[in-house]
Design goal:
The protein has 714 residues and is an alpha/beta fold. It contains 23 helices and 30 strands. The strands form six sheets. It has a seven-stranded mixed β-sheet, with helices on both faces. Strands 20, 25, 26, 27, 28, 29 and 30 form a seven-stranded antiparallel β-sheet that branches. Strand 10, helix 5 (165-178) and strand 11 form a beta-alpha-beta unit. InterPro entries: ATP-grasp (IPR011761), ATP_grasp_subdomain_1 (IPR013815), CoA-bd (IPR003781), NAD(P)-bd_dom_sf (IPR036291), Succ_CoA_lig_flav_dom (IPR032875), Succinyl-CoA_synth-like (IPR016102).
Length: 714
């Protein structure tokens, strides 16, 4: 058995710092374990021969039998000594509930570093410190001091992993209230060793876990998280995550809470989405989505929703909520509407369907009409408002019988019922495979989440390209434009035909060879923002005009940036029929190479209309990135403009992602802005590019490097 298996499935547990008082941190775990746990319990206490009716030991080393798991509830300064005893005893898994470690500042960080070093040397795995504990509901091993753990939910297929003890306690209470079955429950605190990603990967292969619910403040290894999410997706297990720290204040609070940097929220959002985890905005939403994934009989093939109601007003409300959640409420095919009109002559049948009260005269109409809708080919999910029919002693047995018959004939139909049921009635419908909600708007986001998982589980991850890393002999951190563009061109991102010149005569000759109006730009590794200091001239046609422009550029640079190194002036064709987009790479400390696409040009930092993914990306993922942009409609042609070359843009995104992975060890960032997207069939062109390398002892100011490498992330 692995140490992680012993952590989560212990056959015996020692409680170090055990208390005879069941209300104290060292006493609650023993009190809870005595209730349902069938394994051996070994209280460790220096002075008491017995703890809460169980034989106690003054030392862990006095216990003769093997122990799977140790639970430490001691003051922080003596935790390391207890950990050493665990290693001597041969225990390979430990939960440290004690606080006073890295979450408390430098002194606590030093104590945490000590226990990490001891654990690594001794080969013991740790959950914590500063954690509320771990529970396995199936075997009753509640090694925790959590409030509310006396009243447990039933055993089930939902597993919970959380960085917050408060979240863990709340979810435990909510699961009990809603009678939702629980399997594993893991609160890991500072995650000095075993972390969120490792627990997630374990649960992704756990046969008793169907759905995983997580609370996350921050991680240290983005690749580890991505791989764990990938495994859950491969095994068809929905992962629902509440990720906090989206605001500056929230990120600071998260860092101080568990001593883990929250990181940039947009990147977390992108990675969770990319690897198939649903990010819930609230605890309530997370609970509803997890519930829906547990009880839904299948995943939908599409996002079309049919709204079926006995109240026209609530039908409108539900359609509005569905639209806000990203679901479609399309009109039913005319043939289907005709069939419904024949069955329900006084109804509105377009979608939403308003049956009116005529159902009360013949309840068989419910099953018949639902059957017509669900088999129409235009309905992936069905939301039914039936409040009033479920709590009447006369009507409830009739509607239940009808819905039972419908379910028997349509075992995989995804149907959300809006009712006001008693707990017993709710349970009856859930056993039939119905999702039950009490508010008309409530089902929509969970159903949209179900659609998200349906798409994610059938998606194909990007394959890593085998392209070779580029070779660069320069010692500069910031590569000049011509060098950067040559590198990205070799990687598959098109660049224009252009020439680097070092005098006015060569500039005039280059312009003549290119033909048509040209642009001229200074080329220097020290000048990323050329236009700000007079380093750019546009729309030049006359040869003499080109020569004079060359002179102006050189004079401007000598005056405004006298210490800048000048590699020449770049002469390029003016391209006027393209849409300005931006592509970028940031080699993030947590997630590695992150890819960005957005509307480009000089307003990129103001508009902030961008989408991120972890590199590499597939073509489908690149298309999803574009679909997320608020301004993506311009790609399809607006105000008489032709459609843009979306395929060419997608190819450039994929190529840059492959380049990012191949060169992750040497690049810090790439900024391509603008990338002109030409009309359909004409491709894309990188008009400007900057590559910032990881520091190779080059002389460059920190402020300058930050200006270049992070401008697209502001």
């Amino acid at each position: 058995m692995t140490p992680l298996h012993h952590l989560l499935n212990p056959r015996s547990i020692a409680v170090i710092g055990a208390s005879n008082d069941p209300k104290r941190i060292g006493g609650r775990p023993i009190d809870l374990l005595k209730r349902n746990y069938s394994g051996e319990i070994y209280p460790i206490n220096l002075s008491r021969p017995e703890i809460q009716g169980i034989k106690a030991y003054s030392s862990l080393l006095d216990v003769e039998k093997d122990i799977d798991l140790a639970l430490i509830a001691l003051p922080a300064p003596i935790v390391n000594d207890a950990l050493k005893d665990c290693i001597k005893k041969g225990i390979d898994a430990c939960i440290i509930m004690s606080s006073g470690f890295a979450e408390e500042g430098e002194a606590g960080t030093a104590l945490q570093d000590e226990i990490i070093a001891t654990a690594r040397e001794g080969g013991i795995r740790i959950i914590g410190p500063n954690c509320i504990g771990v529970g396995n509901n199936k075997i009753g091993s509640w090694a925790t001091f959590a409030g509310g753990a006396e009243h447990l939910p039933p055993v089930g297929e939902l597993s919970v992993i959380t960085q917050s003890g408060g979240f863990a306690s709340l979810v435990l209470s909510l699961l009990k209230q809603r009678n939702i079955g629980l399997n594993h429950w893991i609160a890991f605190g500072n995650q000095c060793d075993v972390d969120f990603s490792e627990c997630l990967e374990y649960l992704a292969t756990d046969p008793d876990t169907k759905v995983i619910l997580g609370y996350l403040e921050g991680i240290r290894d983005g690749n580890k998280l991505a791989n764990a999410l990938k495994k859950a997706r491969e095994n068809g297990k929905p992962v629902v995550i509440v990720k906090v720290g989206s605001s500056e204040a929230g990120a600071i609070a998260a860092a101080s809470h568990t001593a883990t940097l929250a990181g940039e929220d947009a990147l977390y959002d992108a990675v969770l989405k990319q690897y198939g985890a649903y990010r819930a905005e609230t605890v309530e939403e997370a609970m509803q989505v997890a519930y829906t994934c547990l009880y839904a009989p299948a995943l939908p093939k599409g996002g079309n929703l049919c709204v079926y109601t006995i109240s026209g007003g609530f039908g409108v409300l539900m359609a509005d909520a569905a639209s806000r959640a990203g679901l479609k409420v399309p009109a039913l095919p005319e043939e289907v509407q005709d069939n419904l009109r024949e069955l329900l002559p006084f109804s509105s049948v377009r979608n939403p369907i308003d049956t009116t009260a005529q159902l009360l005269n013949d309840f068989s109409l419910v099953e018949k009409s639902m059957e017509i809708v669900s088999t129409s080919g235009n309905c992936d999910m069905l939301a039914c408002y039936l409040v009033g029919l479920d709590n009447s002693p006369t009507l409830q047995p009739k509607i239940y019988a009808v819905l039972k018959s419908f379910r028997e004939k349509n075992p995989e139909a995804i149907v959300a019922l809006v009712l006001s049921p008693t707990p017993e009635i709710r349970e009856g419908y859930e056993k039939l495979g119905y999702l039950v909600f009490e508010d008309a708007s409530e089902p929509m986001r969970p159903l949209a989440a179900l659609r998200f998982f349906g798409q994610s589980f059938t998606s194909h991850p990007a394959e890593v390209s085998s392209i070779e890393p580029f070779s660069n002999p320069s010692s500069d951190i910031i590569l000049d434009e011509t060098t950067a563009k040559k590198i990205i061109s070799d990687a598959g991102v098109p660049i224009p035909k252009e020439a680097l010149v070092s005098n006015r005569t060569d500039a005039m000759e280059a312009a003549a060879q290119i033909g048509g109006p040209v642009a001229m730009k200074i080329v220097s590794p020290d000048l990323p923002h050329k236009s700000d200091i007079g380093g750019v001239e546009l729309s030049l046609e006359d040869p003499e005009e080109v020569g004079l422009a060359y002179d102006r550029i050189i004079e401007n640079i000598r005056r405004n940036a006298p210490n800048a190194r000048i590699n020449g002036v770049l002469v390029s064709p003016m391209i006027s029929d393209g849409l300005e987009f931006s592509l970028g790479i940031q080699n993030d400390a947590v997630f590695g190479p992150m890819l960005m696409v957005g509307l480009g040009g000089i307003f990129i930092e103001i508009m902030q209309d961008v989408s991120f993914r972890k590199a590499p990306v597939s073509k489908a993922e690149a298309q999803s990135m574009l679909a997320e942009l608020r301004g993506q409609k311009i790609l399809h042609g607006v105000r008489g403009k032709p459609p843009a070359d979306i395929e060419g843009l997608v190819d450039a995104i994929v190529a840059l992602g492959d380049f990012a992975v191949a060169n992750a060890s040497q690049i810090d960032s790439v900024d391509i802005n603008p990338l002109l997207v030409l009309p359909q069939g004409k491709g894309v062109v990188a008009v400007d590019a900057v590559i910032a390398l990881k520091n190779r002892n080059a002389q460059v100011s920190a402020a300058h490097a930050a200006q270049v490498t992070h401008k697209w992330r502001k």
